[in-house]
Design a protein that fits this description.
mainly alpha, Chromosomal Replication Initiator Protein Dnaa, Chain: A, about 140 residues, 7 helices
């Protein structure tokens, strides 16, 4: 191996180490933020009360639609299940202090799925004409 090849190899190794170092820094920063969030929510008790409230909301939605929690939280994409799931995600976001990530964990989904559900429900609610979906959501808003 020549001297130049040695230098190129060392430069590549340094670049790889720098990338790994940056990735580790991001992980540490994320862990610190998560720790801070959990600690601050533990102090005021909102984490526990929000989770308790979330459980009640999901129970109410299950009763309203005649589904089980497994069906609402599951992966099945039948229209009735998706409707109840989207409404549950919307209610949890608007009625509790849970983050998108926390709601996502409850439904075994990414936070972007929660964003999509919320946007969908907001679009339904903003329609100018009355429909059954709007009426269901409005009745649930009164119940919960």
């Amino acid at each position: 191996m020549s001297y130049i090849d040695d230098k190129r190899s060392l430069i590549r190794e340094i670049q790889i180490l720098e990338l790994e170092n940056e990735a580790l820094r991001k992980q540490v920063k994320e862990l610190k933020m998560t720790h801070w969030t959990v600690q601050s929510r533990k102090l005021d008790g909102s984490l526990y009360s929000d989770q308790k409230k979330a459980s009640k909301i999901i129970d109410e939605i299950c009763d309203f639609y005649g589904l089980t929690q497994a069906q609402v939280k599951g992966k099945c994409r039948l229209r009735g299940y998706v409707k109840a799931r989207f409404v549950a995600m919307f209610m949890l976001r608007t009625r509790t202090g849970l983050t998108l990530k926390e709601i996502g964990r409850m439904f075994h989904r990414d936070h972007t799925s929660i964003i999509h559900a919320i946007k969908t429900i907001n679009e339904v609610l903003s329609l100018k004409f009355e429909n059954d979906y709007q009426n269901e959501i409005k009745r649930l808003l009164e119940i919960i």
